[in-house]
Amino acid sequence: MSRVLVTGGAGFIGSHLVDRLVADGHAVTVLDDLSTGRREHVSQEVELVQGSVADRELVDGLFSRGRFDAVLHLAGQASIRISFASPEIDLTTNVLGTINVVRACHDSGVRRLLHASSMTIYGEPARIPTPEDEPCVPVSYYGVTKLAAERYVHIAAEGPDSGLAVTSLRMFNVYGPRQSIANPYQGVLAIFIGNVLRGEPITIHGDGGQTRDFVYVDDVVDAWVRLLDLPASFGRVLNVGSGRETSVNELADSVLRSFGQSRSTWEVRREGAQLGDQRRAAADVSALTALGWHSRCTFEEGLVATTSWAQAAAAS
Question: Are 93 and 52 in contact (CB under 8 A)?
Answer without folding.
Answer: yes
